[in-house]
Amino acid sequence: MAETIAEKVAGGCAGRIRTLIVGAGIAGVTLAALLRQRGEFPALIERASDLDHAGYNLALYPLGSRVLHGLGLFDDFMQVSVPGSHYRLGNGQGEIVHDFDMSSLLESYGPIRGIRRGELLEILRGALRDVPIHFNCSVTALENRGRTVMATFSDGSSAEFGLVVGADGMHSETRRMILRDHEFAYWDTGWACWVAWAPEDVLPKATMMEFWGAGRGIGIYPVRGAQGVVLAGPRRMMQKEGRVGFAEHVRAQFGMMKGPVSAVIEAVTKAQDAFFWDLHDCRTSEWSRGRIVLLGDSAAGFLPTAGIGASMAMLSAAALADELSRADAAHVEYALRLYERRDRAKVEAAQDNSRRLAKLMMIESTPLAWGRDQLMKFYTLDRALKEIVGIMEGSL
Ligand SMILES: Cc1cc2nc3c(=O)[nH]c(=O)nc-3n(C[C@H](O)[C@H](O)[C@H](O)COP(=O)(O)OP(=O)(O)OC[C@H]3O[C@@H](n4cnc5c(N)ncnc54)[C@H](O)[C@@H]3O)c2cc1C
């Protein structure tokens, strides 16, 4: 008879605190690698059938990439990522409003680099060593039973663990299983974006570029050998006009036939694998119930506007691994409380930073967009990334 998911997953799970991690994304794989480094054998499950779906660009701040030093993966990261030292902001006519030089940040805290999500996961996987990812697996029910959690898997089989970590992203099922509807809330911008890849070389080296117009936004972010591109706008308009229709509409508004704007429009128009992403985030009233804890986007989901969600997911994974390394099996809940106290204020401050940038970016009215453009001419980098700088500085 074929092995059940419970047999497969629980069979290889061992250590001081028998931990099940749900979701092999940035947070889940980082946590599993850190636990493995500490001599634990967590069980790691993933709903998808492989990690090949993991296709978009990430900017990684030192807040996240510093975790890679401790895992011995930083050199690998430097090899497959590209530098980002300038953030260039343009307006809805395609003119540059402000060129933010980020060198002082990089000097103080470390590099900000662009990487494909799939490549970052591949690097992190290297530190899992003998911990497998069990694909095509998810959890359908979780029950706290004092010092254990009973997990029921998608094939109906079940097993007990000492801790379950929900690292299952923005639309976390784990979150729904432990929190009631009024205990978490999505913050909806009313906007969405198409995400795709464009060929290399439409930007100056080490430069990320965005154009914010009235009812439209474009972003271009270099990674190795390509550039992640984003075309954003009010969701209702994007849904009504469709991918190609909206892209053509924006092309007409920008009136540009060449350069980065045109490269984004072309990439989004042509890409068969472009994906549609609703621009909302999510905040929860609590990060754990009993021995079930939330991590990464599942605890606090991020808008991509400050490019900080993956970094915060890695930072949180490091905080959780650290608290667990100081706990015995009888005091897991205490470790979870300490993890939340240590990390929550930072994560929500980074979310606030992302929300503030989203409010500046996602403007539909032409006069307001004009006013925003005037403001952005005088905006400093420290102002734009106020909360994130505070977290990097350790003052939050
Ligand atoms: C277009 C876009 C651009 C972004 N740009 C940036 C950026 O530049 N910089 C940055 O730092 N962040 C960025 N982010 C945000 C960042 O990707 C997330 O904050 C980060 O990935 C969160 O990590 P996570 O592990 O919590 O979630 P994810 O990386 O989303 O991983 C969740 C995993 O759980 C799996 N899963 C889901 N449900 C289940 C289930 N029921 N059972 C089992 N597995 C499940 C998923 O398949 C996935 O593998 C961006 C996001 C998007 C969408």
SSE blueprint and pairings:
Layout: H1 5-11, E1 19-22, H2 26-37, E2 43-45, E3 57-60, H3 62-70, H4 74-80, E4 82-83, E5 86-91, E6 96-101, H5 103-109, E7 113-116, H6 117-126, E8 133-134, E9 139-145, E10 148-153, E11 158-161, E12 163-166, H7 173-178, E13 184-198, E14 207-212, E15 217-223, E16 226-234, H8 235-254, H9 259-270, E17 275-284, E18 288-289, E19 292-294, E20 300-301, H10 309-325, H11 332-361, H12 366-378, H13 381-384, H14 386-393
Parallel strand pairs: 1-2, 1-12, 2-8, 5-14, 12-19
Antiparallel strand pairs: 3-7, 4-7, 5-6, 9-10, 10-11, 13-16, 13-17, 14-15, 15-16, 17-20, 18-19
Helix pairs in contact: 2-6, 2-10, 3-10, 8-9, 10-11, 11-14
This protein binds flavin-adenine dinucleotide.
Flavin-adenine dinucleotide binds at residues 22-28, 45-48, 56, 58-59, 138, 167-169, 173, 195, 277, 296-298, 302, 304, 307-311, 313.
The radius of gyration is 21 Å
Residue windows where pLDDT falls under 50 for at least 5 positions: none
Question: Helix/strand/pairing class, anyone?
Answer: alpha+beta
Second-tier CATH architecture:
3-Layer(bba) Sandwich
Main attributes of the structure:
20 strands, 396 residues, FAD/NAD(P)-binding domain, eight-stranded mixed β-sheet, 14 helices, six-stranded mixed β-sheet, alpha+beta, globular, binds flavin-adenine dinucleotide
